[in-house]
Amino acid sequence: MPLPSLLIVGAQKSGTTWLHRALKRSHHLVAHPRRKELDFFLRPDYAERLDDYAAGFPDDPKARYVFESSPNYFRPPTGDRDIAARIATSLPGVETLAILRNPVERYLSAYIHNMMKGRLPYAAEITDFTDNHLLLSHGDYAALLDHWWRHLPRLRVYFHDDLTANRAAFLTRVMADLGLDRDVPDKALKFRANARDRKIRDLDWDRMPVLSFELRERLRDHFAPGIARLQAMTGRDLSGWLADDQEAQDTQRMAQGSTSSRG
After folding, report:
1. Superfamily for 6-261?
2. How do the domains of the chain map onto residue ranges?
C-alpha cells in the first residue's frame, strides 16, 4: 500500500483547498484520498497507524504522485508534537508544498472560519488580538519555515498573491516544480473553493465580519518583523503585505455605515 509522496501542508486559509481540487483534475495525480484534510500526523498514535493511513490511498502504479492536503500540519512544534519531524521521519523523500498569504488577511479569514464553526462568537467587527486557535502563530511564517526547513529542506513555498493573480500560471508553476506538464485546461480552473458567501447563507449574520481599523494596524505591526525575515528567506518582495489596504478600509467603512443606518 502506498504512502503519500506529496503533501500540501499549509498554510490555513491560503488556497490549499483550491490547489488540492486543481491537482485532482490532473491525470498525473490520480492517487489521492476521498477527502481533504486527513490530519493524520496530528494523531498521537500516528506511528502505529501508518498502515491504516496507507490503506486510505488507491494503489495506482501509473500515478506519479500519491498526495494529500492537510493545512493543519503547518504549525509550530508544541511539547512532544512536532509535525514537521513526524513527516520527515515517516515519509522520507516526500515532496511538501506550502502556500503563504498576507498574515493579516489570513487572520481575518481564519477568525471568520472559527466563527462559522462556533468556536468564536459572531462579531460584525473583529477587535480581538489573540492567539486562540493559533490565529497569530499560523501567520508567523518565518519562524515556521525556520523549523520546517530544518526537517524538510525541500519544502516549496508559494504565495497566495500569485494564485489570485493568475490561477493557470500558478498551477503551471507548481506542476513544473514537480516535474509535470500542466494537463488541466484553463476552463477547468474556474471554480471557487471555500466561497464564504455560500457558507453563511444558513447563518444568522447581518454581514460578513471585518477587522477593526485598530486591529488591522496592530496586526500589521505584529507581523512586520516576520514579514521582513520572510522576504530575506525567500527573496520575495512582500512590501505589499505591509501597505495600507485601501480596498479593505473602504469595505470596512461601508459595513460600519450599514451598521449605523440600522441604528
Report:
1. P-loop containing nucleotide triphosphate hydrolases (3.40.50.300)
2. 6-261
CA-to-CA distance for 263 and 260, rounded, in angstroms?
5
H or E stretch covering 229:
helix 213-234
Task: Kindly state the cell numbers that stand for 141.
Answer: 511564517
71: Cβ contacts below 8 Å, ≥ 6 apart: 8, 9, 10, 11, 12, 13, 14, 16, 37
Cell representation of residue 26: 490532473
Q: Each residue of 59-104: pLDDT tens digit?
A: 777 788 889 999 999 999 998 899 999 999 999 999 999 999 999 9
Q: Where are the beta strands (DSSP E) in the chain?
A: 6-10, 67-69, 95-100, 125-126, 156-159, 210-211
Whole-structure pTM value: 0.89
Block residue for cell numbers 496507507: 54
DSSP calls for 131-195: -GGGTTGGG-HHHHHHHHHHH-TT-EEEEHHHHHH-HHHHHHHHHHHTT----S-GGGG---SS-
